[in-house]
Amino acid sequence: MSQPEHSRPWTAPTATARIDARVQLPGSKSLTNRALLLAALADGPSTLHRPLRSRDAAIMAEGLRALGAAIREVPGDGAFGPDLEIAPAPVTGGGSIDCGLAGTAMRFLPIVAALGDGPVAFDGDPHARKRPMQQTIAALQGLGVRVDADEPRLPFTVHGAGGVAGGELEIDASASSQFVSALLLAAPRFERGLTLHHRGERLPSLPHIEMTLEALRQRGVDARSTGEASWRVEPGPIAALDEQIEPDLSNAAPFLAAVVAVGGRVVLDGWPESTTQVGRMLPELLAAFGARSRVADGSLTVEAAGGEIPGASLDMHAAGELSPTVVALGALASGPVEVTGIGHTRGHETDRIRALIDNIAALGGRATELPDGIRVEPGPLAGGDWSAYDDHRIATAGAVLGLRVPGVEVDDIGATAKTIPEFPELWAAMLEGRDLEPGATPGPTGAGPG
Ligand SMILES: O=C(O)C1=C[C@@H](OP(=O)(O)O)[C@@H](O)[C@H](O)C1
Ligand SMILES: C=C(OP(=O)(O)O)C(=O)O
Fold it and tell me: Can you tell me which atom of ligand 1 is nearest the CA of 204?
């Protein structure tokens, strides 16, 4: 098995007892990166409390710095690490931005760069060069912005010409909701705002578009849906906002799935009363596998009996980023599990459908590809190699399987640095029933200055 230099091989721990744990998770990637971007375009300085500290958040912060914003760490409230203070500045060109493997950075920042004056060069990790970017480039061109690209993907250069007129635009966001979010986030700074229409075969991850609209409205922007696949953002100032970032509910998925796999109980602290995060669907999704959930006093408790996991058929088009965890549970189920509506996850950090099928096969299981999803057959599994493909969610899916299958060898648990660098420590603490707060074990990459 070839491993990149930075890889951290990890034998997924097998559960030896029922789970009884209280977990606190680090901040949401999607909320942190929206808050950073909007703060950089706002009308005054903002502070983010409990921001995510991870590779994707660091990439967003670094990209915004390259475009002129000042972002610095200031003392936070202890266990959650430093806060971030963001001072906006006029968008400047002339730099270059490394998007790593962060979809939010590679889709959101080119539109911000178009507001500036001068060229900004974008590139990313080798696999980032394979992720769909055509709609970012087409949208910029449709807005009259010059983009130099040999092919419709990274690397490319955006030539800001001092502003974007905006108006009306049509895109095809079938491959990613991030194309829509990117345009809506920058649109208050377009001279005429933006009326945006999606025309295409499907629109994945609608909750993430709702999150974008809500983040804009929280900052005084008139942003709304005008139809099933149309949105309007009025031009105007983006108000500065001090915000406490919610825990990442998508990263809650493997921890809650662990209860289904093993039996027992997990209490997740900081569960928001209401949220735009797609992870809010987890209680309902896990109920399909027999879990019971309740929310009280700001915590979510998930309980499950352990033992047999029933088969299920789930359409996850709204929640593709939760699908690797659900497929991992599917491989442990006693009936077939079908997850559909996730064709677009072939364009995520890796081709997730292929990665899951191949990894499950390496453990002796059988999963097959559907036109827009995956079907997992019940059957015995044995230890074997589990490739992370630099994908945090594939790595953590291996962790879920390892709870019941001894000897699941994840080739690089370091892939979790993308959104939850402290994953191995939090996972071990959960299995041992110890409380461990995020920030207690600082991850390899913070969102602060390098
Ligand atoms: O806007 C966002 O923060 C995200 C949108 C979704 O992207 P896709 O629509 O490409 O699935 C999601 O999967 C990704 O993890 C984060
Ligand atoms: C698809 C994901 O990430 P990205 O923001 O890189 O698209 C994800 O986190 O599941």
Answer: 9
How many Å is the Cα radius of gyration of the chain?
21
Handedness of CA 392, 394, 397, 403 (dihedral sign): negative
CA 324 to each of CA 20, 271, 330, 388: distance values in angstroms, whole numbers, following the listed order: 24, 22, 10, 11
Residue nearest to atom 14 of ligand 1 (CA): 321
What whole-number distance in Å separates Cα of residue 217 and Cα of residue 227? 17
Q: Which of 246, 321, 422, 437 is catalytic?
A: 321
CATH topology of domain 10-26+246-432: UDP-n-acetylglucosamine1-carboxyvinyl-transferase; Chain (3.65.10)
* Segments making up each domain of the chain, as ranges: 10-26+246-432, 29-220
Q: Is 104 in the pocket of ligand 2 (CB under 6 A)?
A: yes
Q: Which ligand is nearest to the CA of 105?
A: 2
Question: What CATH topology corresponds to 29-220?
Answer: UDP-n-acetylglucosamine1-carboxyvinyl-transferase; Chain (3.65.10)
Ligand 1 pocket (Cβ < 6 Å) reads 30, 103-104, 176-178, 181, 204-205, 208, 320-321, 344
Beta strands in 215-254 (DSSP E): 223-227, 230-233, 243-244
What number is the ipTM of this complex?
Answer: 0.99
Q: Rounded to two decimals, what is the model's pTM?
A: 0.96
Amino acid at 448: G
- 210-256 pLDDT, tens digit per residue, is 999 999 999 999 999 999 999 999 999 999 999 999 999 999 999 99
pLDDT of 373 strictly over 90? yes
Mutate to test the pocket of ligand 1, among 36, 107, 198, 208 (most ligand atoms within 8 A of CB): 208
Q: Is 205 annotated as a binding residue?
A: yes
Q: Are 57 and 82 in contact (CB under 8 A)?
A: no
Q: Which tokens go with 60? A: 């967003």
Q: Please name which ligand lies nearest the alpha carbon of 396.
A: 2
